[in-house]
Amino acid sequence: MAIDVASLAPLFAPESVAVIGASSEPLKIGGRPIGFLKNNGYKGRILPINPKASEIQGLPAFPTLGDVDGPVDLAICAVPGAHAMATLKACAKKGVRSVVMFSAGFAEVSEEGRIAQAEMASFARQSGIRLMGPNCMGIANVRTGMIASFHPAFMFPQPKDGHIGLVSQSGAFGGHCMQMARERGVGFSYMVTTGNEADVQASDALAYLATDPHVAVIMLYLEGCRDGARMIEALEIARRNNKPVVAIKLGRTDAGAKAAQSHTAALAGADNVFEAVFKQYGVYRAYNIEEFFDVGVATSIGCMPRNNKVGLVTVSGGVGVLMADDAAARGLDVEELPAATQAKFKKLVPFAGVTNPLDVTGQIMNDRTLLEQAVNLVLDESDYGSLVCFQGASSADPQFAADQLAVWSRVKARFPDRLVTVSGLLSADFIKVLEANGIPTSRDPTHSLRAIAALHGFAKAFAEPFSRPHVALATQHLPSGSLNEIDAMAVLAHAGLDVVAERLATTADAAVAAADAAGYPCVMKVVSADLVHKSDVGGVKLNLADQHAVRAAFDDIMRSVKSAAPKAKLDGCLVAPMITARGIETIIGVTQDPVFGPVVMFGLGGIFVEALHDVAFRLAPFDDAEAHRMIREIRTYKVLEGLRGAPASDIDALAKALAAVSRFAAANVGQQVSLEANPFLVRPRGQGAIALDAVVTVGVPAHIV
Amino acid sequence: MAIDVASLAPLFAPESVAVIGASSEPLKIGGRPIGFLKNNGYKGRILPINPKASEIQGLPAFPTLGDVDGPVDLAICAVPGAHAMATLKACAKKGVRSVVMFSAGFAEVSEEGRIAQAEMASFARQSGIRLMGPNCMGIANVRTGMIASFHPAFMFPQPKDGHIGLVSQSGAFGGHCMQMARERGVGFSYMVTTGNEADVQASDALAYLATDPHVAVIMLYLEGCRDGARMIEALEIARRNNKPVVAIKLGRTDAGAKAAQSHTAALAGADNVFEAVFKQYGVYRAYNIEEFFDVGVATSIGCMPRNNKVGLVTVSGGVGVLMADDAAARGLDVEELPAATQAKFKKLVPFAGVTNPLDVTGQIMNDRTLLEQAVNLVLDESDYGSLVCFQGASSADPQFAADQLAVWSRVKARFPDRLVTVSGLLSADFIKVLEANGIPTSRDPTHSLRAIAALHGFAKAFAEPFSRPHVALATQHLPSGSLNEIDAMAVLAHAGLDVVAERLATTADAAVAAADAAGYPCVMKVVSADLVHKSDVGGVKLNLADQHAVRAAFDDIMRSVKSAAPKAKLDGCLVAPMITARGIETIIGVTQDPVFGPVVMFGLGGIFVEALHDVAFRLAPFDDAEAHRMIREIRTYKVLEGLRGAPASDIDALAKALAAVSRFAAANVGQQVSLEANPFLVRPRGQGAIALDAVVTVGVPAHIV
To answer: Which of A34, B265, B451, B599 could link B298 by a cystine bridge, Cβ 3.0 to 4.6 Å?
Structure first.
């Protein structure tokens, strides 16, 4: 189902909020949202619904929804699960436009619960109600004070000026982030927790936030995803609107996937397919809470650097070297300062290290103009897109701290388009002022460098023209089941791959004729969809030099296969030229992910790759440019560039093949095609690439290994 | 030079400290140590030396060292570099036993400085003075208040009950750690900064701390190392005393190595050799300050877990899954709880996740006995060596925090030998109580899991019997320069490797006789120390079936090589049996590290390995057990175990070969042997391993690539 962003407005920005199950006790689940709405300055109507009280927490209460005068944009359902459906019906009767349902006891506990939840979802859909939950901690629009949540994090005031939108499938996790935000003094504009996702999914929330001007970055916590297409649509909206997405997704290891399965009912999809989706849409994937939070916050504060060069300024030479190591390990370029710049700084501090890092030394305590001189020099005379300054504990002295804040304010004003970051043992107040000024901070420079690498990743992704290719290919009706090699190769050829020319022969005479056409030497293989390991049954003969050898080979193969695999249906023998050309053996595969559909896999052939799991995935379809990125993603990529004087491979031909296969897979999405071209021989540059063997199955969903 | 720990006592635990260049101004470099010694309760004599004052900061001052009544264990030299040598001479005259020299302007600035420093070192050695520095921030024995440093970190009181000894070649870095320690409320027993290391090196300090009962863990910051043997000796002392070492070493990337070079004059050695040394001695290597500090602190607090199984308890299901992912990614075992235990907890909280993680859910806020019940259940009914409990922000409520502290105190008393850790948004006071109780804490569970993995690494390293093998092998006199293949193979055979039998033939007749002895098919290769790429000059013939082929091949090779490489000195042709046995091609190498001496390298053969740099290093000599660990370290190790039904390789034979080569390299350390057995064919289990080709050079120091 496509995303309907407009229909979500009453949920994200309601002008009136009813609380069904409203309680006078501010700590009860039905009492909390009323207190939160009041205390956070919500300007819309707050409408407590309670049949037994005429006033709740100082507000006039209504016995039923029907008694409310005027429209209700959002109803919070804080009643026990058993009464949830009745409440939803009352909402429909009143014309309520959206519902946040705290009530639990649905798909997360039992099959009956799952059925009840599906009924609610279907009813909500028919009634035009957007339903968040059940079993969720609700939604908070922090700027407007619209806190439709019962999470205790909102007992304390949150900073209101934030630009981070948080979408979390877990309520506890969402609340934890809000607590971290308050402690850190960082503002979030939205917290959205989607719970069981009967109707509104994380994807919908993501899409809404991607269109909201108060959201500069979206933080996305995922346990799984039921609807891959909807997630893709949301990510496309975010990508088109240049909204960076920082994601954390559970289940990247077997242990985690198992734990996730017992924790959530959501369909997970293969983790490496999520990984591919994140790469394809420029999403930053974090692996722990700290990284998720830090990168999200830094992205909301800092600008995107123009390049991956980073200038390093430090009060400690040793920490400077650590930063250089760390930056390089993160793929940043620690380019040296120009010689003239180095000489200028040497005049200021003769014993300073000046290459990059620039080590201002403890001298900054004696000469209080030194820090600003150093930073200005570095940024004026280089084109570093970003800068990290490690200050140690130098800001512990209050006077020096005040001086430094003034320095950084001037630096940022002078270099508004550089990503300037400051690291050290900084006080909370110091951090607040710097970050309000667009300068992300960290206690350890490794976190500043991580943020810089992340922001550069976004800059790079957003600089690339974004287009998922149209699929011009017509759907081809394929026979279902496992195809024999001849048919499989025909499918690859149809998809647009070069394939080795194979001829089917059912008699020895026909084999000789086919060999004459193919040329010598040639190879022969038994053709049978029933046989996977043809060599094991004597079904393969290589390097056949002449007619005599071909004739003998045909008879040999037929006899030997019939004896080794008497039940296999044999379609004959294929005859093909023996490919002796140099090249690198690769594998191109297509599998069907239960969540995202057709996925293309690429890796080098051989047992080393099997030992290393060195493969890249992409969702189909994609274009040549994406295929090039995919190819460069594997760790053994250098092999394709040519090692030890070997010629560079025809990577363009390989990229074209991958993109072609992806279009074919997308065009035939309904037919559940799994295929593998293996080996797919990539020849030296200019000589193309060709499939030497293929396995294709149709209509049998296969999981990715 | 061997380490003399006893001679360092006057430096680390002096009973009297003179300050030469003592100042009345407490902020001056010559004033600070006096204030620090006074304010930190140092019980020994503090002896300010100043010709112009009779009293300094309330203490009687002496005009010269010679005027001091009684002995002086340690003299702090806080005079300009130009007066350092004179001061050292005065110290010698007085019989001072150790000197901490703050003075700068030596090897770190110029060649003259380097010479002056060498003179001081030599003078100190002759005078029996242990000299720390010059250009260092001194040493602090925090427990005794003996602060012989001028770092501003000591302006504030440090916790005195710590068990962490810090050795840092950088003064600024050492001070930064002390500032972090104070902020965190963590105690260090020593901070030692070694500066230019004219005499006392980081290795000496490491060895001293490894023998000190107040040191439970040593944190080591290294920029480089001049004396590999001394570092090895220190690490052996630490290893024998079961003192965990957490190290951070600069220059792991090219950018970092370059920056380090411009920052320090110290000889670095190859980073991968340091990495190997750390592995060999069970040292934990950290890559950033936070990791260095966190792991060091956790190691000083927590016990070593008995196994790598970790129990996970969480108030948030999502965070529980993240922990499971993180634990698995760190190589910890997230074994499920026994079914009976799961059932017991389900009775307490029916909707809880109970596999592992155990999700206690927000219920712990309602049932305040639940946390303790859960943790006891998990630890009682499993053999998890360690546990992480994620509490979120639940301790924000003061009453609940007090309850929780009592719970953790009881848990730790009940399970003293389990490594129990707590993670969440904890207050500083909460952290202090837990950590005093032996429970390491973190704000993010990923850091608890990192600490657990580190502590488990120490447990594993310390459980292995530690022995560097004696080198029984006699030194063999080798011809110097590049050896031809015959001689090179003889060297490998002498080292104890199986080598393919090669015979040298200088005539076609001799070649035929050699082939008859070798058996058919055979191979022939030109023998010349001048030719590296023998195939390129037509110098190799494979698969020779009979005498006729051998005779023709001899003539072919000679003709073709003479024409392609007329200047090469040809020793003849070697004849060897053609090895067609199955096996995995590997590479065994020996190189000479400028710091650590002979190093053994191992990896699989082939271009994939070259693309991946998938190799392991070890310092020679080592035993079979270490060789087994080395072999298992490469990422492509699975290939040796047999993939796709291939037979497992003879890993025992491979390990024996690596250990043999390491003994050979150690025995011939004076001759600078570099060798490479490539390919070294490892056959299926039970069938041994054999060198098929070799390159050996003698007397030419070669760097590791």
So the answer is: B451
What is d(CA B404, CA B390) in angstroms, rounded to the nearest whole number?
12
Q: Do domains B6-155+211-281 and B302-463 have the same CATH topology?
A: yes
For residues B211 and B153, the answer to whether their CB atoms sit within 8 Å is no
CB contact under 8 A, B326 and A287: yes
- pTM, rounded to two decimals: 0.93
Q: Nearest 5°: phi and psi at B553?
A: -65, -40
Q: pLDDT of B9-57, one tens digit each?
A: 999 999 999 999 999 999 899 999 999 999 999 999 999 999 999 999 9
| Measured distance CA(A53)–CA(B212) in Å, rounded | 72
> Cβ contacts of residue A503 below 8 Å, gap of 6+?
A514, A517, A518, A574, A575, A576
Query: Does the pLDDT value for residue A270 go beyond 50?
Result: yes
Q: What pLDDT does A365 receive?
A: 78
Nearest residue of A to residue B335 by CA position? A255
Note whether A604 contacts B: Cβ–Cβ < 8 A: yes
Contact B219, B246 (CB under 8 A): yes
Range list of H helices, B565-623: 607-612
- Determine, for residues A351 and B108 on separate chains, whether the beta-carbon distance falls below 8 Å: yes
Given a cut of 70, whether residue B224 has pLDDT beyond it is yes
Q: How far is CA A370 from CA A165, A413, A632, B126, in A?
A: 39, 18, 43, 43
Query: Residue A606's pLDDT is what?
Result: 72
* A263 band by pLDDT with thresholds 50, 70 and 90: low
Give the homologous superfamily in CATH for domain A501-577: ATP-grasp fold, A domain (3.30.1490.20)
Query: CA nearest B172 in A: which residue?
Result: A316
Pick the CATH number of B6-155+211-281 from 3.90.180.10, 3.40.50.620, 3.90.1520.10, 3.40.50.720: 3.40.50.720
Using a CB–CB cutoff of 8 Å, tell me whether B527 touches chain A: no
Model ipTM? 0.92
CA A628 to chain centre: 19
> Mean pLDDT, chain B, as a whole number?
92
CA distance B342 to chain A (A): 12
User: How close A388 comes to chain B (CA, Å)?
Assistant: 15
Q: CATH code for B302-463? A: 3.40.50.261
Mutant choice from A176, A297, A325 vs B, greatest count of B C-beta within 10 A: A325
pLDDT digits (tens, 9 = 90+) for B239-287: 999 999 999 999 999 888 888 876 654 555 689 999 999 999 999 999 9
Q: pLDDT band for position B705 (50/70/90)?
A: very low
Amino acid at B672: Q
3-state secondary structure of A386: strand
Domain boundaries, chain B: 6-155+211-281, 302-463, 501-577, 584-698
Q: How confident is the model at residue A54 (pLDDT cuts 50, 70, 90)?
A: very high
CATH for the A6-299 domain, from 3.40.50.2020, 3.40.50.300, 3.30.300.210, 3.40.50.261: 3.40.50.261
Q: Which helix (H) or strand (E) holds A276?
A: helix A271-280
Question: B398-409 as b/e, with b when 16 or more CB fall inside 10 Å?
Answer: eebbebbbebbb
**Euclidean distance between CA atoms A701 and A14, whole angstroms:** 43
Distance in angstroms (rounded) separating the CA atoms of residues A324 and A332 = 9
